[in-house]
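To close the chapter, one final illustration. This time we ask the reader to focus less on the individual chains and more on the assembly as a whole: which components sit near each other, and how the overall shape emerges from the parts.
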Amino acid sequence: MRSFTPSRSSLLMAPALVWLIALMVVPCVLVLALAFFRRGIYGGIDYTFTLENFGLVFDPLYAGIFLKSARIAGTATLIAVVIGYAAAYAIAAAPRRWQSVFLFFAVLPFWSNYLIRTYAWIVLLNRQGLITQLLRWLGYTGEPPSMLYTEGAVIAGLVYNYLPFVILACYAPLSRLNPELAEASRDLGASAMTTFRRVILPLTVPGIAAGAVFVFVLSIGNFVTPALLGGGRFQMIGNLVYDQFLTANDWPFGAALAMALIAIMLLVLTAQAIAANRASGRVEAAEGNANG
Amino acid sequence: MSEPRTLLAIDHVSKNFGRVTAVDGISLDIRENEFFALLGPSGCGKTTLLRMLAGFETPSDGRILLDGNDIARTPPNKRPVNLMFQSYALFPHMSVRANVSYGLEMERLPSAEIRSRVDAILATTELVPFADRKPEQLSGGQKQRVALARALVKRPRLLLLDEPLGALDKKLRGAMQLELKRLQHEVGITFVIVTHDQEESLVMADRMAVLRDGKLLQCDTPHAVYEHPADRFVADFIGVMNFVSGKASPDGVVAVNGARIAGRVPTALTPGASAVASVRPERVRLFPEAESANRTTGVVEALAYQGLDLQLHVRTPRSPKPFLVRVTADAADRRPVASGDHVELGWDAADVRIFAE
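The assembled structure is written out below.
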């Protein structure tokens, strides 16, 4: 590998650093600062220090919304991982030349707008929608099922939108897996199911974890999908933050909620990073021993 | 001695992949407790044959009889056959002990029995100090022993080894060849090894099969294959050989330039047919006695010192390629030769093998 002098490498890193500081660190610090002030009487900001915004986050009403958001994000993550892993497994097992084609199709929805993709689900799920028509065509005559504006619709929308991340994250370790490992397991007397449980699954857990964290973090803070597919009645933590800033005009409380959300995301990401680091650290130590 | 029992009978087995025939009607018997080698250049079908024995491929045609039962369609996890993979295929997330225990856990044996059998095989393969290590923490030779222990602990009727020494360096390979043979005697399991290295099969095998283009060319002891190759390809593939092309005559081969090589002509060769005479370098004598049936003179072009012996490249009028002559270090000391020397070569008619070309 070519080695760069420190000055050259910092020069190469500068644009990314400027971007990160200007558009990530500064706004975050501003939002964090906002959370320590009071709401003005006419919706402005009263610059007196207070901690009560953070106290309010733990109010059962808002804590409940946090829990509900975590539950929805967790369910969406679970479903996305099961579907995504199965899809990635099938792609990795396909002939080499077809794999990139299948991956292209798996990622294809990304090329359309998130809003449009989510609106498509309204077309599918509403009372006169495609699913109702399909049921009618099959002979169902009763009341059309109410699928839109439910928790299920929100979960379906989240799973659909973030599935490609899981497929890509799981495909990487599955495609790198030496097929002889599965053969060796079979050769030693294991059934196909046992081979999956004891060899393939444990060796692809890092991919599953990466995909799962992605879906969970993006889902728990999502506000577009619950707004469109959950209807006005349905609130996740993202909608709550949105409302505080744009409807209730309580910026300090909105900022405190946003900070709580960021804290949850950081916690999940840190946990995954530590786990991944420990796994790769073990490999490095092992390689060091083998060479030494 | 009674005739050894046949353990595995490969009966007219073929395997096609689409329009490609990888294995073409091979029949051979593998005997109880022997060390058998499947030898051939890459693409000869030896690995496909091995994978059919392990159960990863199903023959397109023919039967594979283990103790008289056709196992051609039995899945790999239901056969008393184990394979040691070329890549070793050790489970990277498991310790050495867990790797070796895996196959016995699949048999649902009591944990006390698993423990004692694993301990025993780890001791046999000298892996006890590494039992708690992960595969990445092992050297190539240690990994190879884990792969071997993992297969052997199952006490298979047949152990298949796919290029088991391919990943090791030359010196370690030599040591492991003898080690594998010792282990095979110790555990009393039939070994079938796949290799492209003719030297390896000569050293290790009790019997060997030479394959080419999916067909079986010869199946015999290493000595018989080396001394009496079935055809020109086998003669060339196994060891080093001098060839002189020409036409068959009743008592030998007449080379293109008119020189005669005396030797026994196979009955299938009619006089006048294209033929090739061959002789091993170690059968050619430098400064021969008068009674040698074949004699020629030449000029030493090059010398290759190999410690044990000396290989000479001698330019002769007999053939366009230099003749290879192997002289023991002892003989070379007694009568030194140097590059550019004029030498006389001679060999017996009995050491000449003649093949159709």
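Residues 60-279 of chain A form a domain with the MetI-like fold fold (CATH 1.10.3720.10). Chain A has one domain: 60-279. With these observations in hand, you are ready for the problems at the end of the chapter.
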